Amino acid sequence: MSSEAVYSELANAVLSFDADKVLETTKKALNLGLSPGDIIEKGLGKGLRIVGEKFEKGEMWLMHIVAAAEVAQRAINELLEPEILRRKEVRTSLGKVVIGTVAGDVHDIGKNIVRALLTASGFEVHDLGKDVPIEDFISKVKETNANIVAASALLTSTALTQRDIIEALKREGLRERVKVMVGGSAVSTEWAREIGADGYAPDAVEAVELAKKFMGIR
């Protein structure tokens, strides 16, 4: 079986939202000697991008993006990232993103979808999880030399923390070299402008486009 056929099979597995099929096909691709990075970009990523395009056209719904992101991320976490470390493979990255749901907020479905689509699109994503303290965002930016911080807040009370993250980046002398993206149901374009963020992403597809814009990619 050719590599392109395997990538297509993997993309179709993502589109079927079948976790077992995605894992099985990912193992097949690895056994053929294909690069984990290429498997993510040309297989899983292709499937996720198709789901994103269908979502934009109204042909799929949020639940489809959630399901596709979950099955793709499972393959990345369980099979591909360990293999990347084992092979000491260096992925070509569009940019480094530190992402997390801010302190006091434990909602992470939207953030997880953004993480999956960013990874599939070629970004190096460092996911801090949910209920993340401001200092963890700052330390991870320093550790990774990140280009972008993506902070999610689904509660009005926790959205204030997005502003605090920006202020912390300023205090640490990091703000000039890091773009800040905010998102979540408690957030709007007006809020992003008010707190001095570089952009607002209403959904995962827009988050990827915004991240590419930040990196000068059209």
Describe the overall structure.
- With 218 residues, this protein is an alpha/beta fold.
- The protein has two domains: 3-87, Methyltransferase, Methionine Synthase (B12-binding Domains), Chain A, domain 1 (Orthogonal Bundle); 96-214, 3-Layer(aba) Sandwich (Rossmann fold).
- Helix content is 60%, strand content 11%.
- The protein is built from nine helices and five strands.
- The chain has helices spanning 3-15, 19-31, 36-56, 62-87, 109-120, 134-144, 156-171, 189-195, 204-214; strands at residues 96-101, 124-127, 148-152, 179-183, 199-201.
- A five-stranded parallel beta sheet has the order 2-1-3-4-5, with helices on both faces.
- Helix 7 (156-171) links the parallel strand 3 and strand 4.
- Helix 1 (3-15) packs antiparallel against helix 2 (19-31) and helix 1 (3-15) crosses helix 3 (36-56).
- It is globular, with a radius of gyration of 17 Å.
- It starts with a helix and ends with a helix.
Q: Which descriptors apply to this entry?
A:
single chain; 218 residues; alpha/beta; Methyltransferase, Methionine Synthase (B12-binding Domains), Chain A, domain 1; Rossmann fold; 2 domains; five-stranded parallel beta sheet; 5 strands; 60% helix; globular
